[in-house]
Amino acid sequence: MKLLTFLGAGKNFETTYLWQDKEYTSKFAPTASAHLFGPDSIVVFLTNGAREKNYDVFRAEIPKNISVKTVPIPIGRNSEELWEIFSAITEQADSETETIFDVTHGLRSFPLLSMLAAAYLRAGLGVKLRALLYGAYDVSDKNVTPNRAPIFDLSPMLSLLDWASAANRFNRTGDARYLASLVEKQRKELALNAQGNYEALDEVGKLGNLAGALTGISQSLRLIRPHQAMGQIAGLPSRIESAQPALSRAATALPFKLLLDDIAKAYEPLAQDTPSKESNLSNTLEVERRMIHWYLDHEHWVQAVSLAREWMVSWVMFHLNIKKLTNLSERKGVEHVVSTEAHKYIEEKDKEFSSVFLANIPELENVLSLWLSLTDARNDIDHAGMREDAKKPEALIKRIQNDIDILDSFSIAR
Asked: Across residues 193-198, what is the average pLDDT?
């Protein structure tokens, strides 16, 4: 096990540092951490001033069986020096060694920088962070001599950065799976603490249901399962409401509670509890069209063009009064007719076009032109650009956006 720490140039006062049922008296919190946790080695980041004023005293208190390495760092006058400090920290960490970080000492910016570095080491480089320690001298009991101060483990606060990362991913992509994984982690912790308390376990189970709902919605959207996604989203508010008691039990879930309203509002336009019901077909088509725009807004181009093309099949079926939109044989038949008519329309574009099977479909010529354009864009994507006329990504994206603008003009009213 390795202990990473800073050493400052300021004056330090003898303090008894407390960790659980153990204690150690020293002028330096990292010295106490060394005695209380027993690392194999210590890496001390220190400025020239800290080396001159405090290092010899600090080193004398470290047990002889613990190796000590010093790493010189600047005082952090500007962003370049702060990045230099960050680089020094990352160079001393490795993913194979369990690591403790004591952030008590150093200049005022160092604890913040070291917390961010610790978060990066854990998430980015896979460092096994056992604890992020802070000797809380400011809250010490000064009515006794020496002062008595607790050592806090701040590593649970790093979950804030996990929540921030998951929230950022949700806002950018609409994918809630990473939020759900953090919720599931909370569920497991609460379940362990609630052993034997059946009421609490029932509440915790509802938190798991919420995590499952968020995962299911994200998977349905990514795999273009619009009807499944609509139903799951329609049930989301009740899942959120049921999970509130369990969320109130978990202090570290507060960041998630703050996001819940935004998550519900982001998905709400895509909700439809019975999308396949015949009386709801027009509304289902409208929700699907909003879903196409949801894909565009989150830059899911493949899903957008695939759903847009299927939406056109459903739209034609709707206007032909075919009520079972998910019937595969019916869909294949309509798709064949639309494709045949579209190619006929192109072949006869210099003549007066007359449809055989789709004469009653509104805006038919626009429909047939858009069908060919969406089909070509989808094929360009599905064939991975393996054709001579494959479009560049920016041109393909613009084409998809333009096609969906046209799709928006099609009326759902019969």
From this structure: 80
- 392: which 2 tokens? 């560049």
Angle, alpha carbons 60-26-40 (nearest 5°): 55
Say how far apart CA 86 and CA 117 lie, in whole Å.
6
Cα–Cα dist 140/38, whole Å:
23
Average pLDDT, integer, range 256-265: 91
In the chain, what are the domain boundaries?
A: 2-153, 159-273, 299-414
Q: Distance (Å, rounded) from C-alpha 83 to C-alpha 109?
A: 12
- Predicted local confidence at residue 356, as pLDDT: 78
Other CB atoms closer than 10 Å to residue 401's CB: what's the count? Answer: 12
Sequence letter at residue 194: A
Omega prior to 146 cis, within 30 of 0: yes
CA torsion angle 150 153 156 162 (round to 10): 130
What DSSP element (H or E) covers 101?
Answer: strand 99-102
Place of tokens 């376990």: 201
pLDDT in tens, 148-186: 889 999 888 888 888 888 999 999 999 999 999 999 988
The confidence score (pLDDT) of residue 220 equals 97
For the chain, what is the mean pLDDT?
90
| Eight-state DSSP code of residue 33 | H
pTM of the predicted model, to two decimals? Answer: 0.83
pLDDT one-digit tens code per residue, 126-137: 889 999 999 887
Is residue 252 exposed (0-12), middle (13-18) or buried (19+ Cβ within 10 Å)?
A: middle
Alpha carbon distance 82, 153 (integer Å): 24
Q: Kindly state the average pLDDT of the residues 56-72.
A: 93
Strand partners, 153: 133
In DSSP terms, 69 is beta-bridged to 43
Above 90 in pLDDT, residue 282? yes
Confidence of residue 141 (pLDDT cuts 50, 70, 90): low
Both structure tokens of 356: 């055989």
* Amino acid symbol at 276: S
Number of Cβ within 10 Å of residue 319's Cβ equals 19
CATH of domain 2-153: 3.40.50.10640
Q: Which amino acid is at 258?
A: L
Q: Where are the alpha helices (DSSP H) in 348-392?
A: 364-382
Distance of CA 276 to the CA centre of its chain: 31
How far apart are alpha carbons 368 and 353 in whole angstroms?
11
pLDDT at 240 over 90: yes
